[in-house]
């Protein structure tokens, strides 16, 4: 199966770049399934139902999130109804929405997508991500009742992400880090066959501070006093992601390659 995962869309420029590029990416990369992290899509904070539908209609199959999942208060009202929206699975029991779900890909295969949040340097501090993963995957087994498993691990500390990847190595197809908005170059297939990257980067303007206009964050570092609201940068976005090809029999990864297109970053096309 050919799976594309795109990192956190930041603001209008991020989501418009994703929506614009998805048809071309889908065709050229012969994609079976597309996942996009959307927790910063609405002016940098959360996602609205309207934006969710725009990105799904643009070609994405699932939108994941993270610590900003419920920044738009309206999300609490519709998260239960939107099966293609995921919030971290390790939110407390009773939180609206779902953390994992199984979907049918374009090739007819079944893919389990899960969104789990780290706890190191993260707010809110959720339940233990490792035990959350154990319970999420206790009823679904790679190659048995699903053909692929992708985990969006939304975390700040690369040490936690790496350990989480090793914890799931051999049991899932891909562990992909999100949240820091900076792409790492440690994409690899772990020893047990799971594709891994500590952070896939964002889909946003890299002439910025993590996708936000750089003036106010810089002001806060310099003066320790808030002067203005933090708002998304408006320059051309770089679309950042990884493409993973999985083995149809085992569900484990055959390859993982980075994608970077548009904007300030040097372009990289999946090999
Ligand atoms: Fe985040």
Give the count of structural domains.
1
CATH class: Alpha Beta
CATH-assigned fold name: Purple Acid Phosphatase, chain A, domain 2
Overall geometric form: globular
Radius of gyration: 17 Å
Helix and strand pattern: EHEHEHEEHEHEEEHEE
CATH-level-4 superfamily name: Metallo-dependent phosphatases
Distance between the termini: 15 Å
Q: What share of the residues does DSSP label as strand, in percent?
A: 15-25%
Low-confidence stretches: none
Bound molecules: fe (ii) ion
In this structure, how is the largest beta sheet organized? 6 strands, mixed
Helical content stands at: 10-25%
Strands ordered across the widest β-sheet: 4-5-6-7-9-8
The overall average pLDDT, rounded, is 97
Q: What kind of assembly state do the chains in view correspond to?
A: single chain
Number of H- or I-type helical stretches: 6
**Number of beta strands:** 11
For the record, the CATH architecture stands as 4-Layer Sandwich
Class based on secondary structure composition and strand pairing: alpha/beta
Question: Could you explain how this protein is built, in words?
Answer:
The structure is a single chain. The protein is an alpha/beta fold and 271 residues long. The protein has a single domain (2-205, 237-261), classed as Purple Acid Phosphatase, chain A, domain 2 (4-Layer Sandwich). It contains 6 helices and 11 strands. A hairpin with a 5-residue loop joins strand 8 (188-189) and strand 9 (195-197). The structure holds fe (ii) ion (FE2). Fe (ii) ion is lined by residues 39, 66-68, 154, 179.
């Amino acid at each position: 199966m050919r799976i594309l995962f795109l990192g956190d869309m930041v603001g209008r420029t991020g989501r418009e770049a994703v929506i614009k590029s998805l048809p071309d990416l889908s065709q050229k990369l012969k994609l079976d399934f597309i996942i996009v992290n959307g927790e910063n899509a609405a002016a940098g904070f959360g996602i609205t139902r309207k934006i969710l539908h725009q990105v799904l209609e643009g070609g994405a199959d699932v939108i994941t999130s993270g610590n900003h999942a419920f920044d738009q208060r309206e999300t609490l009202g519709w998260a239960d109804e939107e099966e293609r929206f995921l919030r971290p699975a390790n939110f407390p029991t009773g939180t609206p929405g779902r953390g994992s779900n199984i979907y049918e890909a374009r090739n007819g295969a079944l893919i389990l997508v899960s969104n789990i949040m780290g706890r190191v340097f993260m707010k809110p501090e959720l339940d233990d991500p490792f035990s959350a993963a154990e319970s999420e995957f206790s009823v679904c087994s790679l190659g048995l009742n699903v053909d692929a498993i992708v985990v969006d691990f939304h975390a700040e500390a690369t040490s936690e992400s790496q350990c989480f990847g090793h914890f799931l190595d051999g049991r899932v197809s891909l562990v992909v880090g999100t949240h820091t908005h900076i792409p790492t170059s440690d994409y690899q297939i772990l020893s047990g066959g799971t594709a891994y990257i500590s952070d896939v980067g964002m889909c946003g303007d890299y002439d910025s501070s993590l996708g936000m206009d750089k003036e106010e964050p810089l002001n806060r570092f310099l003066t320790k006093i808030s002067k203005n609201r933090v708002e998304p940068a408006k320059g051309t976005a770089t679309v950042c992601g990884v493409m993973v090809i999985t083995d149809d029999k085992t569900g484990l990864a055959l390859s993982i390659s980075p994608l970077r297109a548009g904007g300030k970053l040097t372009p990289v096309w999946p090999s």
